[in-house]
Amino acid sequence: MAVHEQSHRNTGSRFASLRRDRSAQAANEAGTALATGAGAYAFAGLRLLTGFVFLWAFLDKTFGFGYATPSGKGWIDGGSPTKGFLGGVAAGPMESTFHSWAGDTWVDWLFMAGLLAVGVAFVAGVALRLGAIAGTVMMAMMWVAEWPPARHLSDGSPSMSSNPFVDYHVIYALVLIALAAVGAGAVWGLGRLWERLPLVRDNAWLR
Hints:
66% of the residues lie in helices and 0% in strands. The protein has 9 helices and no strands. The chain has helices spanning 2-34, 37-63, 83-87, 95-101, 105-124, 128-146, 168-181, 191-196, 198-202. Helix 2 packs across helix 7 and helix 5 crosses helix 6 (128-146).
């Protein structure tokens, strides 16, 4: 009886192992399908556009092209890329903290370095995992600064929030994570060359 039960358990474990192998194979095939053909070009296009959003924000805030940042008030002109946004925070649990950070040199440099790093990474198609982490942290902080769950601002006026949970910051963060997960830097990017570098090849988190 004991031998019979042991045999039954071994058979079950073999079936479970086969199921796991098939599931892993199916997942790999799905990932390959996403990274090839039309899907690869769609992800590449999304990657370039997303990267350009961050890169343009850096350039406009640095040089003051007259869009979000008025001409003559760019970073190189002595303006602060964070003072207006953080100083205008009017809701949420970190309102006073953001006000105290607004315009600080270290905040300006950290914010601008993040915009540049994420923008270059996704436009070039390299270091997407690091770029996704940095971009997600930035989007999370900006989500907290705008605090969509608030119905009213600190002065009592309506917040006019269109959605208490999901806004464009959440969407951008998910897009960054998805692009890094599928390795979207291989098409229209330097992803393949980047992954061949010895340092990157030995450290998957740099891809």
